[in-house]
Amino acid sequence: MDISLAAMDDPPTSPLKAFATFLIRHHSDQLNSLAHSPDPKLHYPIFVEFAELMDDDPPLARLLFSRPTEYLRIFDDAAVWAHKIILGDSKNGIKKDFIHVRINVTGSPLELAETFPSIGSVRVKHRGVLLTLKGTVIRSGAIKMYEGERWYICRKCKHKFPVYPELETRNSIQLPSFCPSQGAKPCEGKNFACLEGSVVRHDYQEIKIQESTQVLGVGSIPRAILVILKDDLVDLVKAGDDVIVTGVLSAKWSPDLKDVRCDLDPMLIANHVRRTNELKAEVDIPDDIIMKFRQFWSDFKDTPLKGRNAILRGICPQVFGLFTVKLAVALTLIGGVQHVDISGTKVRGESHLLLVGDPGTGKSQFLKFAAKLSNRAVITTGLGSTSAGLTVAAVKDGGEWMLEAGALVLADGGLCCIDEVDSMREHDRATIHEAMEQQTISVAKAGLVTTLSTRTIVFGATNPKGHYDPEQRIIFTLFMWLNLITLRFDIVLVLLDTKNPEWDAVVSSHILTECEQEKGKCDNDLSSNWPLTMLRRYIQFVKGYFRPVLTEEAEQIISNYYQLQRRSAMDNAARTTVRMLESLIRLAQAHARLMFRNEVTRLDAITAILCVESSMTTSALVDSVGNALHSNFTENPDEEYAKQEILILEKLKSMEE
Fold first, then answer.
1. How does residue 591 score in pLDDT terms, banded at 50, 70 and 90?
2. Most-buried pick from 235, 255, 316, 423 (CB within 10 A)?
């Protein structure tokens, strides 16, 4: 690499000098920090905002955009040169030979539809310009080594020049037809020799990113594109990560296949990669919206449950009633607080919900609406999902095995909706046990052994098998085929179509008048109407802002109820394990968040108990749980709750004595 540094001693070209000056003026701290790294042969990044460059030197920024392949190399040379100038003759630092300028275009004038298209919109017109794509990593290849550049010398005029292999043709090297010297008289020499020790090698990795299904319309197939990562970008991301990649669009083909049609596969040679996993659960929540939330709870401080029910009415409003289900959906999406126990084991904060019901009871409606409330959601069906489609698949590409992420991995940090869970094969259902409880997927396929993250809420729906007998316990009546997976759901609600004439009359009236109500709807205050966008913002805000802690009173109530269930549910002992205790804590924390609080009170603990009671056919406290399908919103929920609270506390106290 001494040859490259020697070339840097020559008077730099105008763009190189201009960018080196820019780096010295604006990024001297980054250049100085590189001096403290001990290894001069490693590759180091310098991060530059495109907007900053555009403000400082618009012509240079435009050249970078229109001719990125050429100017990114010039910028890298300028970074090495600027680093050398800043260090000077100082002996306190080690000069670095490999520095790469990483251009971040987020928030710049390039964040437009033309230069920031969806993956499915990439066309030939985007070739050769600085392009930015957003997607989810679905495949991550092995890390390899490739030859990045090699220096040659002309035997005739002794001119030294670098030759860069072409990634498009599988890193093949093409020597120039004649000497590229820029002297007064062209050399035109054709005989070149490779300089010993001049080969520069780079780390190399191929990943594949796919556009998010959240932004696609119905019937659209998500498109994917190959992305090439080099040097310090290698191994930054893994399958399931959301990324924003800036680079140069090119094409890949095989040059050695004769008499075969040459198909060009598009690929993006990455210059900058940013993981957005930490941002994927965030929603833009302006301060005025937060003030609305605070004002809402201030208005309902005397009747908090009435305020809570106003929020719950906004969940799946096209389905009449079903208070219990809407409360369960809200608590599931909000979730509890993840914590680490004394042994160092992580206890999940995400809750899981299963709806079991007759056809026409609105299960799929709730699944689809829950997906709209989540910033990151994957919807699938049990019949259309294999174990590899849910977890991870091993695929062979170009003679190499790679892992391709399935639905649970792609939904990491969000929601995975599985309709018709009963249609899944037994060994396919078994694969998601670990994903639901430990929130990881351990993979050992085709010699690839790894663990992937699945911090995912699972929302399932299924139909009962045959005739449901309410006298029989739920595990053996409905779930002989699902006896293990049900234990991992925090709430299991049964929706039975019992043909109640009074209920049928109310529901039919609601459906027939729904269109008229839609015509007259306006943006009312939150006390009467919570639109979808406001609900999304509220759920994301309370998840990020509140970390509720249990009060002593709440702990005592939950503990007493758990012990009561252990004593009374002898015929349904499968569900009354420590998992139930953890579920009660998660649901109580979720309800505290829903109520805009950082403290789990008696109200939250008792609401969690009522949710668990609703999800069992053998109740320990409530004499008649009732059908969740016929649960409706009451006119005075605070008064109704006060009666339930007295009843439950008395029973818990009597059992304790």
1. very high
2. 316
Q: Above 70 in pLDDT, residue 239?
A: yes
Q: How many CA atoms lie within 13 A of 71 on its CB side?
A: 23
Which pLDDT score, from 0 to 100, does residue 528 have? 64
d(C-alpha 64, C-alpha 541), whole Å: 39
User: What pLDDT, on a 0 to 100 scale, did the predictor assign at position 375?
Assistant: 80
Residues whose CB falls within 8 Å of the CB of residue 320, separated by 6 or more in sequence, listed in order: 506, 507, 510, 511
| Mean pLDDT score, 109-116 | 71
Please state, in angstroms and rounded to a whole number, the distance separating the CA atoms of residues 50 and 111.
10
Q: Which tokens belong to 125?
A: 């017109």
Structure tokens that stand for 302 in this block: 């005397």
Full DSSP string of 265-276: EEEEEEEEEEE-
Classify residue 337 as left (phi > 0), alpha (psi -120 to 50) or beta: beta
Question: CA-to-CA distance for 372 and 532, rounded, in angstroms?
Answer: 8
Mean pLDDT across the stretch 275-295? 72
How confident is the model over 286-326, as pLDDT tens digits? 888 889 889 989 988 888 888 888 888 888 887 777 888 88
**395-407: pLDDT as tens digits:** 877 677 777 888 8
Query: How far is residue 409's CA from residue 452's CA, in Å, rounded to a whole number?
Result: 7
Most distant CA pair in the chain, distance: 106
pLDDT score of 465: 62
Q: Which residue has the tokens 């730099």?
A: 12
How many CA atoms lie within 13 Å of 599's alpha carbon, on the beta-carbon side?
5
Q: How many CB atoms lie within 10 A of CB 441?
A: 23
For 285, 305, 319, 541, the CA distances from 545, given in Å and listed in that order, are: 12, 21, 30, 6
Region of residue 197 (phi > 0: left; psi between -120 and 50: alpha; otherwise: beta) = left
What pTM, to 2 d.p., does this model score? 0.77
Q: Helices 532-545 and 363-373 sit at what angle, rounded to 10 degrees?
A: 60
Q: Give 126-177 as a DSSP string.
A: GTTSEEEEEEEEEEE---EEEEEEEEEEETTT--EEEE--BGGGTTB----S
Of 135, 144, 142, 143, whose CA–CA distance to 225 is shortest? 135
pLDDT at 11 over 50: no
CA distances in angstroms from 363 to 458, 460, 493, listed in the order given: 14, 9, 10
Token digits for 15? 């763009």
Please report which helix (H) or strand (E) contains residue 206, including its range: strand 200-210
Number of Cβ within 10 Å of residue 202's Cβ equals 18
Domains of the chain in sequence order? 1-111 (3.30.1640.10), 130-276 (2.40.50.140), 306-513+528-656 (3.40.50.300)
CA distances from 519 to 317, 475, 515, 516, 522 (A): 15, 45, 6, 5, 9
Q: Given the structure tokens 């109580």, which residue do they identify?
A: 588
- Which candidate, 364, 334, 325, 315, places its Cα nearest to that of 534? 315
